[in-house]
Design brief:
Layout (H helix, E strand, L loop, with lengths): L8 H27 L4 H12 L6 E2 H8 L3 H13 L3 E5 L7 E5 L1 H34 L2 E2 L2 E2 L2
Antiparallel strand pairs: 1-3, 2-3, 4-5
Helix pairs in contact: 1-5, 2-5, 3-4
Length: 148
């Protein structure tokens, strides 16, 4: 492993700016979820299910990975969301051992409204975030040799 490149003031500024902009977006996202009557984790789960696609239902294992949760924690979250009629479980017709998770029309509608708000927010914040990420990329250590 090569010696680490000394960090410059610009490196610290780029890291701080990235973290600030990401945190600001996450704060916006959490606030929007709460205003819609959801826990932020519930919003994230709806998005994870929908992102897998309408033709590919999500398994509990896939969702645990996407959410970075333990299997049992994912099941608990799914239970709470199923009680609120945000999603539903169905047995996999090809493998009865597997349970697949689907959005309900209510969950789909909530997610659509939240996603529209997020897309609008990203139109504002994305340019600054891209600039901060570019500053980080320019200073990355590529192939063990510091970029000059």
């Amino acid at each position: 492993m090569s010696a680490e490149k000394e960090l410059s003031q610009a490196d610290y500024q780029a890291l701080a700016e990235c973290r600030y902009l990401l945190r600001r977006f996450l704060h916006f996202s959490e606030q929007q979820a709460r205003e819609a009557g959801l826990e932020p984790q519930q919003h994230q789960m709806l998005l994870a299910i929908r992102a897998l696609g309408t033709n590919k239902p999500a398994s509990v294992g896939e969702l645990a990975e996407r959410m970075q949760l333990q299997h049992h924690s994912t099941v608990e979250l799914i239970n709470r969301m199923e009680e609120r009629r945000l999603l539903e479980r169905r047995r996999d017709t090809d493998d009865q051992r597997r349970v697949l998770i689907y959005l309900t029309p209510y969950g789909e509608e909530l997610l659509k409204n939240l996603s529209i708000a997020h897309r609008t927010e990203l139109r504002t914040t994305a340019p600054a975030l891209l600039k901060a990420l570019q500053a980080l990329i320019e200073n990355l250590d590529i192939d063990g040799e510091a970029e000059q």
